[in-house]
Amino acid sequence: MFYSTTFYSNIEGVNYFRIKQVDFNGNFEYSNVFSVSDYHSKSFLIYPNPVDKTLNQLFLENHGEEEIHISVYTSLGQIVSSGDIRVAKNEIIDIFSNLHNLVPGIYEVKLTTSSEVHVEKIEVR
Q1: Which of 35, 54, 87, 102 has the most crowded CB, counting CB atoms within 10 A?
Q2: What is the pLDDT of residues 43-102, one digit of tens each?
Q3: Do 107 and 67 form a contact (C-beta atoms < 8 A)?
Q4: Rounded CA gap, 93 and 68, in Å?
Q5: Long-range Cβ contacts of 32-41 (<8 Å, 24+ apart)
Q6: Residues 119, 61, 101, 81: is their CA dihedral positive or negative?
Q7: CA–CA distance from 109 to each of 25, 28, 36, 86 (Å)?
């Protein structure tokens, strides 16, 4: 069986749900609890994605002031760039200005702060 619904919530972050199935005879049972993350709650925004390496820029928009450790990995897990930066709240910065050294492909950007680890895949064209 397949169920589908749209839940319009203005609650950011992780929302928890469970499904109540009611049979024709009135018997019911609940599903296991599952979580859904609100994509608007991301504390980081990396763009453009995909990125054209001839533009030579990849930006990070941050929603809080913090020290961030940035690592960029190939799809094979090899590190191609790593460093620390301090970002002010709502600041937009260029986090990777040497894209011309990368071959086209999928890369993983890992952002580590004192309170979270954010991993996002980017495509370099």
Answers
A1: 87
A2: 677 888 888 877 656 677 766 778 889 888 998 889 998 889 888 877 777 777 667 778
A3: no
A4: 12
A5: 36/7, 37/13, 38/9, 38/11, 38/12, 38/13, 38/14, 40/12, 41/12, 41/13, 41/14
A6: negative
A7: 52, 45, 22, 17
C-beta of residue 121 within 8 angstroms of C-beta of residue 47? no
- Separation between Cα atoms, residue 108 and residue 75, nearest integer Å: 7
How many CB atoms neighbour CB 96 within 10 A? 23
Which amino acid is it at 59?
F
Name 85's bridge partners.
Answer: 68
CA-based torsion, 99, 102, 107, 113: positive or negative:
negative
